[in-house]
User: Fold this.
Amino acid sequence: MSTKSRLDKYLADCGAGTRSQLRHVIRSSRVRVDGEVQKDPGYPVGPDQSVTLDGMPLKRPGRLILMMNKPAGYVTATEDAWERTVMELLPETYRASDLKPVGRLDKETEGLLLFTNDGALLHRLISPKRAVPKVYLARHEGKAGEEDRIAFEAGLELEDGTKCRPALLEILAQGESLVMVTEGKYHQVRRMMASRGLPVQYLRRIREGSLSLGELPLGQCRLLSEDEIGLLEKY
Ligand code: URA
Assistant:
């Protein structure tokens, strides 16, 4: 997180409301910075400054990183006119904390989805340059075999000519495989499997970097532990 932030964002990070609500609150002279009424929502606030709303001191929380076990049926977006979004599944206390999903899972994909308010970390984790490995459990039609494994390892070419980086395919059982990719192209795993005649019926992300989904129940979120944050820091 950058050290200075706009006053409306600072207040949103404190959970005081949405940015648009807070712009109104700020313009109504209810917010003071270092004791002075501040009516400019864009006013830059540093970590050592005191901020009050209606006389109540507010403290911005530090960096937040949450893991969600995303259920099917929710789109990965901060807002959507028609669909339910993953933001609706965040615990109430974090709704106004400026959390953003790290990358994207398709509407029908389940599993590990991170959220953070740390823009720099978010960009590192989704940057193709960092090649963060992501592992998916895929249930699919057809029987994957050694030739498929070799084709994944060599780097698949999708139907539209898109070239994929080398990936790993581990065959668990008939119709059930693990896929590891280090990039995040649109519908990537589904398209990779389809290109080998193995259409995916069910997809769940179970690992990202060194983080595992573990036993987190579907639809639930939890904060990462310090150890888990350490595992992400290397990217
Ligand atoms: N690959 C897919 O096809 N879908 C996802 O949601 C993630 C990876």
